[in-house]
Amino acid sequence: MAEKKLVEAITSMDEDFAQWYTDVVKKAELIEYTSVKGCMAIKPYGYAIWELIQKQLDERFKETGVENVYMPMFIPESLLQKEKDHVEGFAPEVAWVTHGGLNELQERLCVRPTSETLFCDFYKNDIHSYRDLPKVYNQWCSVVRWEKETRPFLRSREFLWQEGHTAHATMEEAEERTIQMLNVYADFCEQVLAIPVIRGKKTDKEKFAGAEATYTIEALMHDGKALQSGTSHNFGDGFAKAFGIQFTDRDNKLKYVYQTSWGMTTRLIGAIIMVHGDDSGLVLPPRVAPVQIMIVPIQQKKEGVLEMAYALRDRLGGFRVKVDDTDKSPGWKFSEQEMRGIPIRVEIGPKDIEAGRCVICRRDTGEKIEVRLEDLEEKADEILEQMQKDMLERARAHRDAHTHTAVNMAELEDILNNEPGFVKAMWCGDQACEDQIKEKFAATSRCMPFEQEQISDTCVCCGRPAKKMVYWGRAY
Amino acid sequence: MAEKKLVEAITSMDEDFAQWYTDVVKKAELIEYTSVKGCMAIKPYGYAIWELIQKQLDERFKETGVENVYMPMFIPESLLQKEKDHVEGFAPEVAWVTHGGLNELQERLCVRPTSETLFCDFYKNDIHSYRDLPKVYNQWCSVVRWEKETRPFLRSREFLWQEGHTAHATMEEAEERTIQMLNVYADFCEQVLAIPVIRGKKTDKEKFAGAEATYTIEALMHDGKALQSGTSHNFGDGFAKAFGIQFTDRDNKLKYVYQTSWGMTTRLIGAIIMVHGDDSGLVLPPRVAPVQIMIVPIQQKKEGVLEMAYALRDRLGGFRVKVDDTDKSPGWKFSEQEMRGIPIRVEIGPKDIEAGRCVICRRDTGEKIEVRLEDLEEKADEILEQMQKDMLERARAHRDAHTHTAVNMAELEDILNNEPGFVKAMWCGDQACEDQIKEKFAATSRCMPFEQEQISDTCVCCGRPAKKMVYWGRAY
Q1: Which ipTM was obtained for this model?
Q2: Chain A CB within 8 Å of residue B244 CB
């Protein structure tokens, strides 16, 4: 009875995907709403996922020479205004501090929505010579954007992220770093989060405020909507000119630096939920699962059962493992483990002990595998590895099955309305067509993928000669 | 010549300790001042120290069952006001957000100066039964206090810290956790930072706004001034009553929870500088040194020297090790390594290679040790271990030599003015005496140490019967 209650409490994803998402976020104990409108409290289980993301992403950063720093959280208004496009993009959605203690500030400060301006202000004083380049800095922090509509992880007024900010002697080197970090992001999503992504370039309409070029990785959620999962920007020397960041080059000439920035956020947790989750709750890829193996003793009051459960836990010490020794029923424990997306459940009861075996149940497939106790470590390792791979392949198959092509507006509309997913279609390069598609179908250009295909010769919208293939879609 | 310039650029610590501190902070490249008044940019080397502090402190937390979470950075004004003493303590020094985007907020929000109120608001909804207790949560974040006078690491308008917030079923359990975390802090300071601390209780005058009891660890800096290095507070059920945090206990009665909080900050980096530094710059305890060993090749253009330096680096892979292969002179490299406080320098040149040896130079003592190349790993390990221990003992000896006793106001004044350090003196327990000492000598009660001694029978100030021995001192 008890286990039914827990499972019944979440909405089916096919019935109401938005409600299913909210249910999972709450029932898996990832977040809690707070008295601060639009801001969430990230609970221990949600934060443990973020810690695993941070650790593995930070390691990958450091392998490419990234150094971590910390800049102030406030930006004086005059600093924010130095780069014209940038301030236009961000000023409407920042939080303003006007008072410090009992006094009104002479100049108001915004809480950083992103820190390009602060890094520029820092680099201006820190970079003098070509010997000081490149600078490849990153910070882990929270940022604030005053969103009107918010959803846990996907869009909140405050969120956690990392923001990398680099400075280089040449445009070529900046471009190389921009692409390098996009590839770090893409590999991380695929290898760690088991989320396949499309790598590409944003159109001018969709690029970051102040950037010369924005690159993106785009993932497809279970409901066929796209999620921008990480972006990497090449600023050229635009910010350097606005802030006066110059260096003396080898040829003794004073030159402006070229800059990049790149970021990933707690939004990734939303992506994990919406790519891998099912009607029993969360499904976590083993590499970001705070608990990879939950051991559930069956008839735990019988002699020797709990002892065996603890002994197995100790043997599985190389994994993130726990024993559920609470006084709940096994069925209740099963559905809790499922709701929390713990990759492997190990069931062990008196009969298993007698037979010298246990049962491993895979969270993603529900498959039950009988394992001899002496093979447990090896089997657990094998199954977790397999699960990590299978989850990526399953997500890739889902994405491919939900990627269509359209050669005209009628086809585009038909697909967007009836078979949600990515639509590959040609584009003339004119923003008017992009605007029209957005207005008519509420779909946006997700990216111009690096891997271009020739779907047709003409723009899906205006019929003029096409220049680029674009991924279109409705997006979070 | 070059090396001289670098060394000469810092003020001697005995000449002007404050200027010496500022010089070290800048020349060791720990921080940079920013356009945001009172806020600093933490540079890669400074942040790497913080990362090592975080990692080792977080591990110790998790061993005691702490779980990490993340609460919003904003506190609605009405929430801040719920606990009377707390709001009085913090309201005068918070930054207020009054506008979100283009609109004025209905209720202004302060940027968290500390998060008791947010955790209380969260616990109110999250705790229902004794089964939900204890809650032992912590977050790593930045906080803002609108200080008038600021100094890098010691006092800045924004700083990084961790804040633990716990909830318990009984007062005893809360008190136990309060002391447990104080001991974690003390052990961490001594074992990792090589900083000896006095553990004790704050007087009512000095306790945290809203706390029933505040415990502290107090360290003595090289100049004889005290630095409060970590605090742990027992709130009793005061906050629980103000916020209505109740649970149903085993006896089916509704009860208020008992709470604690405890924090340590980037101020610890200031403590490391001021306890261990010398006139050549920073001296880092090996356990928090981002680079533990710097290999400096001598006559590096000679055949085989750089190759040997790299080979040694590879052999020392178990440590945090680097080769300084820049084109600077060895002397310049030496003074840079000294300025940055890197514990061990390994010098290797053509003659050393021929003789099958190298020279290890200890940063703390300047001692040069000839080591046969085949013994290098073992010797390096031994020396780093020894250095970690010696630094703690040296700091302890300095503190003990600068701890005096006073039995009356004349003695107290004489010591404070002529032999800066801790003064142990008896106290009647009356705040009037505490106020008087502060007013006359600008010294405060640092703590009532757990290890009490009987210095005399009467209060150092008023001569009435004494109740407690107190550590007094001038403090940062």
Answers
A1: 0.96
A2: no
Question: How far does A428 lie from chain B, in Å, by closest CA?
Answer: 35
Whether residue B96 and residue A93 make contact (CB cut-off 8 A), yes or no, is no
Chain A: closest CA distance from residue B188 (Å):
22
Out of A35, A70, A72, whose CB is closest to B36? Answer: A72
Among B69, B109, B142, which would you mutate to test the A interface (most chain A Cβ atoms within 10 Å of its Cβ)?
B69
**Nearest Cβ partner of B100 from A50, A141, A146?**
A146
Q: Which residues of B touch A122 (CB under 8 A)?
A: 32, 34, 41
Residues in A 101-120 with any Cβ partner in B closer than 8 A: 101-102, 109, 111, 118
CB B277 within 8 A of CB B341: yes
Q: Is A68 on the interface with B (CB under 8 A)?
A: yes
d(Cα B40, Cα B52) in Å, to the nearest integer? Answer: 19
Point out the residue among A35, A68, A121 whose CB comes nearest to the CB of B34.
A121
Q: Are A43 and B69 in contact (CB < 8 Å)?
A: yes
Residue B180, SS3?
helix
Chains A, B: CB pairs < 8 Å = 147
CB-CB under 8 Å, A47 with B68:
yes
Q: Shortest Cα distance from B126 to chain A (angstroms)?
A: 9
Residues in chain A closer than 8 A to B79 (CB atoms): 35
Taking CB atoms and an 8 Å limit, are A74 and B41 in contact across chains?
no
* pTM listed for this prediction: 0.96
List chain B pLDDT tens, one digit each, 476 residues: 344 545 567 999 999 999 999 999 999 999 999 999 999 999 999 999 999 999 999 999 999 999 999 999 999 999 999 988 888 889 889 999 999 988 999 999 999 999 999 999 999 999 999 999 999 999 999 999 999 999 999 999 999 999 999 999 999 999 999 999 999 999 999 999 999 999 999 999 999 989 999 999 999 999 999 999 999 999 999 999 999 999 999 999 999 999 999 999 999 999 999 999 999 999 999 999 999 999 999 999 999 999 999 999 999 999 999 999 999 999 999 999 999 999 999 999 999 999 999 999 999 999 999 999 999 999 999 999 999 999 999 999 999 999 999 999 999 999 999 999 999 999 999 999 999 999 999 999 999 999 999 999 999 999 999 999 999 999 99
Distance of residue A55 Cα from the nearest chain B Cα, in angstroms: 11
Q: Nearest to residue A151, comparing CAs of A40, A53, A17? A: A40
DSSP per-residue letters across B346-371: EEE-HHHHHHTEEEEEETTT--EEEE
